[in-house]
Design a protein that fits this description.
68% helix, Arc Repressor Mutant, subunit A, Four Helix Bundle (Hemerythrin (Met), subunit A), single chain, 2 domains, 9 helices, disordered N terminus
Length: 226
């Protein structure tokens, strides 16, 4: 009897680098205007120039990186006008994800949604804005996955990356964690109840509320305009 040899899956080095850089944008380690050096990526990930360059190109295609003359690749900066335009799109798409989740979310993801909300509650009780931001990301990503629409989920993740706050957490703003937690509770209840209209409505209000915190910060001059 012939022995079948299983070939291990090929690791896509450019995807590995891109995913690492995306995570650093999410965490704030890489913020708007930060340079991304091709040579540094080659040394850090022990790769040749091709996968490092491909990773940067992938980020540029997604709008996360800009190619600046004489400076190379830098993390993209959104102007206030661009941010507001994307916020309008994000509000509609997040509402759609919540609506579809109310209709389709599987039992395992419903449990994840409750767990992510509990993580939000724990962080809020400790007044830990960093932990709350991470729990908030888990909460929203569970809803993206619960929509069972991979194209929509991918688009939302990319938009969230592009709209990442450039300097400090929006949850550092007064009362934002408390308000966000109450909004999460309304969204979760609507999804678990299967109420599509309420899920869409509550999510729309939640996204608009969070976006207004950013716009207000820009108006006060505490956040760079880009």
């Amino acid at each position: 009897m012939a022995t079948t040899t299983t070939t291990p899956p090929r690791v896509n080095l450019s995807d590995k680098i891109r995913e690492a850089l995306e995570e650093e944008i999410i965490s704030g380690k890489l913020y708007a205007g930060c340079s991304i050096d091709e040579q540094e990526l080659m040394e850090r990930f022990e790769v040749s120039r091709t996968p490092a360059r491909e990773a940067i190109q992938q980020l540029a295609t997604a709008g996360l990186v800009e190619m600046v003359p004489r400076h190379g690749a830098v993390v993209a900066t959104l102007s206030l006008t661009e941010y507001v335009a994307m916020l309008e799109m994000l509000t509609e798409l997040e509402g759609l994800a919540a609506r579809l989740s109310a209709r389709r979310m599987p039992a395992a993801l419903r449990r994840d949604l409750q767990a992510s909300f509990q993580a939000c509650e724990t962080a809020a009780a400790k007044d830990d804005s960093v932990a709350y931001e991470e729990a908030n990301r888990w909460f929203h990503q569970t809803i993206y996955d619960g929509s069972l629409n991979e194209v929509l989920a991918r688009q939302l993740r990319q938009m969230r990356l592009r709209m990442r706050h450039p300097q400090r957490s929006l949850f550092d703003r007064p009362n934002r964690v408390r308000n966000s937690l109450a909004e999460h509770q309304d969204i979760m209840k609507a999804i678990l109840d299967g109420d599509e209209d309420a899920a869409d409505r509550h999510m729309g209000r939640h996204i608009s509320s969070g976006g207004n915190v950013y716009v207000d910060a820009v108006a006060r001059g505490s956040v760079p305009r880009g």
